[in-house]
Amino acid sequence: MLNKIFIMGRLTRDPELRRTQSGTAVTSFSLAVDRDFKSQGGERETDFIDVVAWRSTAEFVAKYFTKGRMAVVEGRLQIRSWQDKDGNNRRTAEVVADNVYFGDSKRDGAERGGDYNNYSATSYGAPAGGYAAPMGGASDFSEIDEEDGDLPF
């Protein structure tokens, strides 16, 4: 059986690091993830997906991610049952993160107020080597008008 999920989106709020009674780090946050298609009304819809990270991944997210920052989350989907204050049974779907990666460049993150130059990526479970800028610079790319729906390939 397989339960593996990858999502990419922007954080809807700053993550907050908490600790369990036994001292285990846990961070919850939510990602705004745009759908790949437009609705019949021509609007692009967004899903707001809850994510929970544990241990070193939780510490990494709390330290380096802020509201609006693009993140790529690799993990598994979990359905959790609970009771609300009125005693009604509820179910919640959330992604339990195994790894969280930067989804934007260091420069883009710095414009949002982050300082990403002074961290040890491997100590927080991030990929060794961190983010590498694309070769050739921005002049190699041209903007595509998404409104016409035709792709250039």
Please provide a written account of the structure.
The chain is built from two helices and six strands. It has helices at 55-64, 106-111, and strands at residues 5-11, 16-19, 25-38, 44-54, 70-83, 89-102. The protein has a five-stranded mixed β-barrel with strand order 1-3-4-6-5. Strand 3 (25-38) and strand 4 form a beta hairpin. It is globular, with a radius of gyration of 18 Å. The chain starts with a strand and ends in a 42-residue tail after the last helix. 17% of the residues are buried.
Helicity level, as a percent range? Answer: 10-25%
Which percent band covers the strand fraction? 35-45%
How many E strands? 6
Strands ordered across the widest β-sheet: 1-3-4-6-5
